[in-house]
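Dear support,

I submitted the protein below through the web form. The confirmation email said the job was done, but the results page showed an empty box. After a refresh the structure appeared. I'm attaching both so you can tell me whether what I see now is the final result or a partial one.
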Amino acid sequence: MFLFGCEGHNLLGFSTQEDALKRLVILAALAPLLNVVASAQSAPGYHIIKRVPIPGQGSWDYLTVDEKARRLYVSHGTQVEVLDLDSGAIVGKIPDTLGVHGIAIASDLGRGFVSDGKTSTVTIFDLKTLKALGSVATGKGPDAIIYDPVTSRVFAFNGDGNSTTVIQAADGKVAGTIDLGGGPE
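What the results page shows now:
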């Protein structure tokens, strides 16, 4: 419906019927989102239950949960802080991870992997002791990192290298590099 007021403008201020219809279509498309936003704001159960200060300087990047060990890994500046999920207490850290970004957990192998963006490496660490077991050279600027339990491989996404380094999780050897043609995050 198009309602005209005076001087060729409708009551809502649109100068043409086409302009009014375009805006009506946009409003109709966005209307369902209003319900989603309202539902999210009133969703029960999501609230802050505790604040845990993380020591050191710099900001944090990725958070990774190890459900089996009930730990939270927080990449933070030049190290990874490790928290107990139940108590919120800091139970350890993985130091010397310069430009740390992502953390991947291989529970089945008892190993973890940290992407070190400034050194273009991945640090491999023991999940129980949090001690470094070694490092693997990657493409330039690894950022996101994931572990695939089906293939037992770790994929480090090299933001500045436009590639992904594929690492065999069991022995830490590079299985290959995939050119992505652009910088992943």
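Response: this is the final, complete result; the empty box was a page-load delay. The chain has two domains: 1-47, 60-179.
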